[in-house]
Amino acid sequence: MAKVILDQVTKTFGDVVALDNVSMTIDDGSFVILLGPTGAGKTTTLRMVSGLDTPDAGEIFIGDQPMIGLTPAQRDVAMVFQQYSLYPHMTVRQNLEFPLKSPILKTPQSMIDEKVEAVSRVLQIAHKLDNKATALSGGEMQRVSIGRALVRSPSIYLMDEPLSSLDAKLRADLRIELKNIQANFGQTLLYVTHDQIEAMTMATHVGVLDHGKLVQFGSPREIYENPVSIYAASRLGQPRINILPADLFKGPVPDGAKSIGLRPEQISQGTGEESFVTRVEHLGDQTRLHLKFKEQDLITVTNAHTSLQRGETVKIRPHKPFFFDADGARIA
Ligand SMILES: Nc1ncnc2c1ncn2[C@@H]1O[C@H](COP(=O)(O)OP(=O)(O)OP(=O)(O)O)[C@@H](O)[C@H]1O
């Protein structure tokens, strides 16, 4: 395992600046998740670290070694992509063994067997070890791809939306397993996702990318509680943060504020000004309240046993809100 550093990395494709002077330190043993919408530069960042692609400017270091000119194999990284890539003619066991069978490694067969058994148990594919890779479902193939990375102990795991093709239950199980791999075995991961639950539950650090720029880097909690902008604030939190005109509520507004940002816990219920309930949504683990307040729509969370119904009113007021300027930058 090793610390990975991106130092002022820039990458362009024609007119598109995919990465714009990105500097980031992925500490040894950390779990860094990159967040951002389509096209933000997440996959490009992984490709730079992996060696599948090279920066136009800037440098990558793994364990203090400059990576310039080194192939993916020489970098000792393990990659998992959204789309599984298995050897179709091999069995699941052979696919999982493959990374350990390299003549350079000389891993004893007993150790290979142990690793393969352990990883296949974690990924819930132990009963499929002797099946041909082609005789698996998409979700199973993806688990084998993840397994092929996990049998190794690379300097860093690079994962690009590895759980997106799996069903909800398996995704939840594997979130826990991937987190264990980092927390209990000290592995380092750089991980791309659109799924903020993955970011909140697994990441030690989140990097928020916006059009190739790294706009915030910190713990998920830091980004949730202290976002630098509307853009960063909107990356985490369900329901999404409410962004409303700054002067919508009674009370002081800082100079230059254009918008007020309210997460559910920043909306006090029961005191303040009246809003109208437009919908009560029972989601099991969360009950969402859709409100209309002075022509604006808001979504917040309420008590699971609420008796509130559509058409009723509830008083609300902001509690320690965020304020943003006209460019969306946080000012208070
Ligand atoms: N090989 C390429 N050729 C041309 N443009 C590219 C290439 N790779 C990436 N880009 C462009 O660079 C930008 C960043 O792409 P990237 O794939 O890193 O985004 P992303 O954040 O991973 O998005 P997604 O969530 O859709 O995977 C996009 O505008 C994309 O179109």
UniProtKB/TrEMBL annotation:
Q: Domain of life, per the record?
A: Bacteria
Which PROSITE patterns has this protein been placed in? Answer: ABC_TRANSPORTER_1, ABC_TRANSPORTER_2
List, alphabetically, the InterPro entries matched: AAA+_ATPase, ABC_transporter-like_ATP-bd, ABC_transporter-like_CS, ABC_transpr_MalK/UgpC-like, Mo/tungstate-bd_C_term_dom, NA-bd_OB-fold, P-loop_NTPase, Transp-assoc_OB_typ2
Record's subcellular location:
Cell inner membrane
Tell me a Gene Ontology molecular-function term this record carries.
ATP binding
Q: Does the keyword Nucleotide-binding apply?
A: yes
Protein name (Swiss-Prot/TrEMBL): ABC transporter ATP-binding protein
UniProt lists the family membership as follows:
Belongs to the ABC transporter superfamily.
Which keywords does this Swiss-Prot/TrEMBL entry list?
ATP-binding, Nucleotide-binding, Transport
